[in-house]
Amino acid sequence: MMTDQRTLDWMLDSDPALRWQVERDVAHAPPETWRATRARVPDEGWGALLLSKQDADGQWAGGSYFPKGYFDSAERDEPGQPYVATTWGLKDLREFGVPAKRLGNTPELIRRNSRWDYDDLPYWGGEVDVCINGFTLASGAWLDVDMTGLARWFRDHRLGDGGWNCEAEEGDSTRSSFHSTLNALVGILEYQRLTGDVSLDDARHGGEEYLLSRRLLFRASTGEVVGDFATRMVYPNRWHYTVLAALDHFRSAALHDGAPPDPRLSDAVEVVRAARQPDGTWRQGTPLAGRTWVDLDVSEGEPSRWLTLIGTRVLEWWDAG
């Protein structure tokens, strides 16, 4: 699948946090080119802005997952949730490609000052929500924190069907969730990529099998599409499951493992292919509600550079395989 020059130029006309990934994954530029662009991320655009919002105590917005005072504020009654606290600041900066060394003594400051909203637990130990722990596992590994304890948590909290579900911790479910399982898998893979720890291979492959057995889309019980959320194209998807985000994970996992694409991904691939516009772009869906530090993408219905990057690299990987 070729990207025409006009669309490629449009994708490259973007913030360095996005541009370096377009250079690497779509333009297939030499490493010295995209690495030079990635080096600009902490000092320009979105990366610089997010770094400037960090509090003196190492946190963002004074809180771990929610901003300080959120539960006593009118914002709690608004749609969605705010994406401005520490977990989201770290997640975005890591995914932008900011080098960990630019965060200085942030890991120690967070260890001292940040506690989870749940039971006042220490930040780097994680809490009970699978998605939150997935984000934390990846961010801790990025910042060279010893995350072996939280890594073990994922092995211990898998459900019988192979995946994870945040509601299982409250005794509300014994079946895995598409959302929770994908967020666990993304966090585990990033942890493994950064640390080389293979002790989670079985857990990750088992969770991937849970999604593959459902072809990323379908309920095991009825064979129906699991929900409209699965086929929605939206960036950023934060913690929400979409087939595009799932395919991007399976691409990364296959490249990490040196494995070919699994044929069971074909239904999901065709959903993504069908959403591609004649000009080679993907359109933004309904953005998630909630306060952010910066708008990372366009309004609903507009061509999205982020979705076009992810959709293009997923289809190129699949078609090449």
Description:
- The longest helix has 18 residues, at 178-195.
- Helix 9 packs antiparallel against helix 10.
- The relative contact order is 0.11.
- This protein has 321 residues and is an all-alpha fold.
- The mean pLDDT is 96.
- The chain is built from 14 helices and two strands, in the order H-H-H-H-H-H-H-H-H-H-H-H-H-E-E-H.
- The chain has a domain at 1-37 and 228-321.
- Strands 1-2 form a two-stranded antiparallel sheet.
- The two termini are 12 Å apart.
What topology, given as strand order, has the largest sheet? 1-2
Could you say which structural class the secondary elements and strand pairing correspond to?
Answer: mainly alpha
Query: What Rg, in angstroms, do the CA atoms define?
Result: 19 Å
In percent terms, what proportion of residues is strand? Answer: under 5%
Secondary structure tally, helices:
14
Major sheet characteristics = 2 strands, antiparallel
Helicity level? 40-55%
- What is the element string, with H for helices and E for strands? HHHHHHHHHHHHHEEH
Which shape, going by the Cα principal axes? globular
Question: Uncertain spans, ≥5 residues at pLDDT below 50?
Answer: none
End-to-end distance, in Å? 12 Å
Query: Averaged pLDDT, please?
Result: 96
Q: Number of DSSP strands?
A: 2
Brief synopsis:
The chain is mainly alpha-helical. The chain has helices at residues 5-12, 16-25, 31-39, 45-52, 86-96, 106-113, 130-142, 148-156, 178-195, 201-213, 228-231, 243-257, 266-275, 305-320, and strands at 282-283, 303-304. The chain has a two-stranded antiparallel sheet with strand order 1-2.
